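Could you help me review a protein record that somebody else here produced? This is what I was given.
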Amino acid sequence: MLTPCSPHQNHLLGALSSEEYARLLPHLEPVQLPLGAALYESGFQLRHVYFPIDSIVSLLYVMEDGSSSEIAVVGHEGVIGISLFMGGETTPSRAVVQSGGQAYRLRGQVLKDEFNRSGGRRAGALHNLLLRYTQALLTQMAQTSACNRHYSLDQQLCRWLLMSLDRLYSNELIMTQELIANMLGVRRESVTEAAGKLHKAGLIGYRRGHISVLDRLGLEARACECYAIVKKEFDRLLPEVKFCPSDRVTTQSTPELRSARPYPRS
């Protein structure tokens, strides 16, 4: 059984004031997010938000024919379910776990109550913090759309790998090329070819669904401008959180999310 990670490992939770954190802490439920779990579906009413710790969640737009394309990726820097505190309650996108791991789940009403309570210009207020995060996430969505339209798959793959790694406490991703293809909305064979070029150039290593970055600077040099633009916006809008690895909670073991569903092929 896994010992839950500290909520502070999520950058948004770690940036809260001590008063806000103390109010939310009793309501934060540790959950294990298995690979392929769907946290919510398009058009469904959202009831919880999720703060990833060492997991990554992809926001996908699904077409009528079942094909899909990733519009954003969220990890320990953010939260899943912004529609709840923005007043929408539902969203046309689908949230699927891209890399399994731990997260904290919070009832939507609790977050909305705190969001409405902490408005104003107070430094570190949850209200302002979530609005800043939403602005950064919208930048990522817009840049992803432009990237998919104007840049090669090789450049898109470099951007995708870098953005995924930025949202993990590791330099290794555990996922198959088929999963990457589903996220990028392309054929698996195309991803295999693009990943082969990066491997041949000595930028990444690949074995049995494990992708490790061997030369990050080289990967950044081959990525399109979109990665740097998105990273700069997140760095500008969100505070840097220094986390101590020894800061762990000692509550019960982390349950696996029961609503997990396999990710359908596009």
